[in-house]
Amino acid sequence: ALLPALLLLLLLLGLAALAAVLATVLLSLPSYDIPPGVNQPAKLRLVLAVLLGTAALGRILEKTGLCNQITFGRYVRQGRKLGVDPKLFIQDLQFNKVPVRVYQPKATSDGRRRALIFFHGGGWVFGSLDTYEKVCRYLSRESGSIVVSVQYRLAPEHKYPAAYEDCLNATVYFMKNAEHYGVDPANVTVCGDSAGGNLAAAVSQTLAGRSDLPSLCAQVLIYPGLQALDFNLPSYQQNRGVPLLFRERAAFFALQYLNGHALHMQEVLEGSHIPPDMRLKYRKWVSPDHIPEKFKVRGVKPRKSTDFIAEVYETVKRFCEPNLCPLLAEDAVVQQLPESFILTCEYDVLRDDGLLYKKRLEDNGVPVTWYHLEDGFHGIISLYDYCGLSFPSGKRGLDSVVNFLKSL
Question: Which of 149, 375, 378, 400 is catalytic?
Fold first, then answer.
């Protein structure tokens, strides 16, 4: 009689927890912003509800000691390994001890193929090979490229520069062995979305000075996060409450990657973490002044000056390293970068990171193809063919990447 009673109690607790989650979600939805310019706003609201529900349930599980919130979030986002693809050979390997998944088109090729090395998004905290399985399959099939998807180590367990080092090591290994996979060593591109775009930009900068390897053919940066100096740029103000990436979460992820925790997040959001002289130095690259006026029409307030806090700077000073914030690389490095593709979304806190990097590349003579999704939001590419939650503009963005690759 005791066992059924315990099971009933667990069921009731489970229902109570679920009710709390749903209540949290429903109460939270009005405080977030679904812009009228987004295509299929009801679908985005559904995605938001799932995100908030997952976060709320994760908090409950963590408080009860059953599961860490980040671990639960990874489980929910994991996705699943798909079955055989009739058009692709797919195999899991290791490059320099880094797990990778290689997608090779089965169709015959007249010569050596192009290759795309892909770094997934997820704020350096979430994401996996399985999460981006459909995206990588699509890129490989549609562009006729060999795609190498890299499973770098995740924060907070593995702090900076672990993810960067894994991506760099896997890329160098592949470039040295490209011919073994039927790839033209001169036609290798690095690519990533969000945090993966950050990693692709950092790897591209590092390899720009290498004389022992062929030069990268191109870099593809999909709504990349490229700096952590200023979380008050126009896009951060305009899109602070727009899913899938909120302003606070952008700082949270950056701090998790850097330090393995999110202490001092509020000070970082306010801008108290950068010394005035350093802020002045980097103003030539990170400033609202360099954002075209048409991107400021939705309402931007002048940044309020905040007091610099030296103790906070000591904990985050590596934000000024280009391997972590590629927008801060010197001109001598930027000038050596390969042809670039940058995709930005209007309703994305990271929009201005992409716009600022586009300007830096163009100012230094680097050819740039820019594709802007007027109705796009952060993370829209990762929703491609995902449980019925795809958006038309996400497919357009993915196809713009495919077209760029086929032009190389």
Answer: 378
What is the C-alpha separation between 123 and 129, in angstroms, rounded?
15
Enter the tokens of residue 20: 């709390």
Residue 384 placed within a domain: yes
264 is catalytic: no
Q: What are the tens digits of pLDDT across the range 332-379?
A: 999 999 999 999 999 999 999 999 999 999 999 999 999 999 999 999
Distance of CA 315 to the CA centre of its chain: 23
What is the residue range of 370's domain? 83-407
DSSP helix/strand/coil, 401:
helix
Active site residue 378: yes
Q: What is the pTM of this model?
A: 0.93
Same domain, 50 and 155: no
Cβ pair 377, 48 in contact under 8 A: no
Is 194 catalytic? The answer is: yes
Q: Into how many domains does the chain fold?
A: 2
Catalytic one of 230, 348, 353, 375: 348
Q: Which of 199, 271, 276 is nearest to 229 (CA)?
A: 271
